[in-house]
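Methods: holo model generation. Sequences were used as deposited, without trimming of termini or removal of tags, and paired with ligand SMILES retrieved from the corresponding compound records. Each pair was processed once, and we did not select among multiple samples. The sequence and calcium ion SMILES for this entry were:
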Amino acid sequence: MRLTSIIVSCLLCGASAQAALLTYDFVGLNRAVPDNDAAGVTDVRTPAATGTPEGDLVITDVNVHVTLSGWSAINGDLYVYVQHGAAVAVLLNRVGRRAGDDCGYGDPGFDVTFDDEAVNGDIHGYRATLFGNHDTPLGGPLTDLLCGSWAPDARRDDPSAVTLENIAFRDAELSNFDGERLGGTWSLFVADMDTGGQVTLDEWSLTFAAIPEPIAWPISIGVAFAALVVDRVTRRSRLPRSSDRHSPRAQEATIRRLKQASKRCG
Ligand SMILES: [Ca+2]
Ligand SMILES: [Ca+2]
Ligand SMILES: [Ca+2]
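and the model returned the structure below.
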């Protein structure tokens, strides 16, 4: 039974495939994000059409790069998420906003790669990660060049109530896209949720690791094949083994019989 289930599982898995790496860049956007307006801006892209070999690839990992510029921008005002079908990843949810500080960080802009596996971890408290406190300003935008990539904020909380400390709803990660097909529309939403400052969406990109969809063999074929193998293994275990007559025990018995026979003769 165990052997059968292992064989069927292997058949259903199909051949293992090497993940392809694909990057799609959406540049030159120059989309001004309205200040203090929850309607924000949405940029919709189709990196690959559904039903095409590329669009049918299955995502195993996705990273997103976003560039938001403006020297008057206030990072703590920004709420940014990416959506594909029903799956959502929250990239920014008012960074630095925490218990006792409703405004968040005042640094101007981002040029950052979001990656669930980033060593820096959660971007929401990036100053604390970089400087050990929330009060030291960056003096410019947060960039990959200076600080490396970051894990998304991932908090699903309402941007008017989100805090660093509350991580009860911190599950809107990029891994939510794993297992989905690459094809179809992907949208990036950017909103400035509080007064002051001006930010512009310059560009964004999607980088996928993706594999062809595993071949699902018809289960009837898998079960029939597994039963055939089990039957062959069982038959083989029942066959008399020719080497038995050469075993030490068989040889001892033969010697005993010969000795008894020689005594009778003598
Ligand atoms: Ca991942
Ligand atoms: Ca990743
Ligand atoms: Ca603002």
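Residues 61, 116-117, 174-175 surround calcium ion (ligand 1) (CB under 6 Å).
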